[in-house]
Amino acid sequence: MPEFAQKLIFWQRRHGRHGLPWQGTRDPYRIWIAEIMLQQTQVAAVIPYYERFLARFPDLRALAGASEDEVLQLWSGLGYYARGRNLLRAARQVREAGRFPDTPEAIEALPGVGPSSAAAIAAFAFGRRAAILDGNVKRVLARCFGIEGARPQVELAQRLLPRRSIETYTQALMDLGATVCTRARPACERCPVAQDCVALRGGRIGELPAARKRGPLPLRRSIWLLLLHKGSVLLERRPSVGVWGGLWAFPELVSGLPEVFCRKVLGCDVKQSQRLREIEHGFTHFRLNIQPIRCQVRKIFPRAEAPGRIWLDLDEASRAAVPAPVRTLLLGLA
Known about the structure:
By secondary structure, this protein is an alpha+beta fold. It has helices at about 5-15, 30-35, 45-55, 60-65, 70-75, 80-95, 105-110, 115-125, 135-145, 150-160, 165-180, 200, 260-265, 315-320, 325-334, and strands at about 220-230, 230-235, 250, 270-275, 280, 285-300, 310-315. Strands 1, 2, 3, 4, 5, 6 and 7 form a seven-stranded mixed sheet that branches. The longest helix is centred in the N-terminal third of the chain and has 16 residues, at about 80-95.
């Protein structure tokens, strides 16, 4: 066994994370749900979503029989909603196949599963020798061995794999990157491989891995119409692709005055409108500035009941599959 792997395995057994709700199981379904939720999301944020999700969908058959609305409602607030839609697609594929795939290659073929997630699922559920290489692991390898670049790191990760205790080693890599070898202020004094670390010996912790050059995020603007009528609010389903795909949100003002747009496009006669405080929501590649306009509706015309639109009472709307800023605004209207 490589000395690097030995040190990590010993360290994880004594100092790693052991109380996470998806640990201590070989159930590929539970491990798969966790790994998808953990993509680009921190453990602390995932835990309550994971527990609620499994309470509603305890096994793959239950998830495969769910509607997209049901899945997205439980996913609401976790972000990156394509993950939820892909989970549902993958669950239905596995149900048709009759069993969960048990090799990294077959797992990666499922919708929404990348190579690192597939390797983690294969290791934890089936004991396969597969190398994970997410952002945290890339940082550990870059600092410890001074190696960057996709191909060299993939080859290195494969060489470091131990012959046994692959589950413990895989968890150790995750724990080391998440809790010790962090991007800012790493706790090198607690690192089990500190004496071998190229970055620490050379005073290059701040240089490795090399920071990607990023310009300022572009700013987009949107005007949301919060239409209220007798305790109900109008929501529209967003397109299945793009930002918040498949979720319910407020109608957007495309052009003109709110009163005119509501009458011509949404089939509502607005008697009063009020601009609320602007809010900003951050995405990976841009920032969204939202101007909410509260509109008190006098009368609803028949065309307001168009496909993809729904009137819900405020309490029901706040529990629907809506993005986080929509829920925040809904709670403020109640």
